[in-house]
Amino acid sequence: MIDRTTKPVLHNYFRSSTSFRVRIALNMKGIEYDYVAHHLRKGEHRQPGFLAINPQGLLPSLAWSAGEVLHQSMAILEFLEEIAPQPAMLPSDPFERARIRGIANMIACDIHPVNNLRVLAQLRSRYQADEAEIANWFRHWVSETFAPLEKLLAESDQTGTFCHGETPTLADICLVPQVINNMRFGVDMSPYPIISRISETCMKLDAFAKAAPANQPDFEPA
């Protein structure tokens, strides 16, 4: 039984795109939460206190009052859908659900893992990559997925105001943080007009805008 009388604690970092996903979903579901920041660039996620919460030392983690701690943003998003089905992030039709999950995982599985902070740090320390090379690496892996995703969205009659239809779904929750993250690395979004339109539309919604990095208590200008 989930205790909904007390607020969960979100361990996260303002700039983390995976944390951004979970903040959007919590806002959409109307679930209030306490915000605990762990500064990734200062290594606070590697401190013993946080490793006791999440031995993997990754963000976000979502802790509940009875001691349950959830890890991995995609698992947390699915959990939130199960405990708070409305407003829905996934439709009832299994084919539509699979399409949405497919779009979400193009970002969560194909872009994020090779472009997250610890991978970029390894490029610097192990291979002496400079900042220009890091940015090129980042942009390459975005393009590898955004180009086919733009085509997929353009060719599907299931694409609407959002990635799927007329309400935001799991796909949009994953897409928007990636688009926002792209700005830091100078990704040219002009080849992706549909992705850009969807992201801009999402950011007009309170759930997305409130979750944006610039609106978090630990925000630091770049």
Your description of this structure?
By secondary structure, the protein is α+β, with helices and mostly antiparallel strands. The protein has two domains: 9-87, Glutaredoxin (3-Layer(aba) Sandwich); 94-209, Glutathione S-transferase Yfyf (Class Pi), Chain A, domain 2 (Up-down Bundle), CATH 1.20.1050. It is built from ten helices and four strands, in the order βαβαββαααααααα. The protein has helices spanning 17-29, 48-51, 73-83, 94-110, 112-115, 117-127, 131-155, 170-184, 193-202, 206-211; strands at 9-12, 34-37, 61-63, 69-71. A four-stranded mixed beta sheet has the order 2-1-3-4, with helices on one face. The longest helix is centred in the middle third of the chain and has 25 residues, at 131-155.
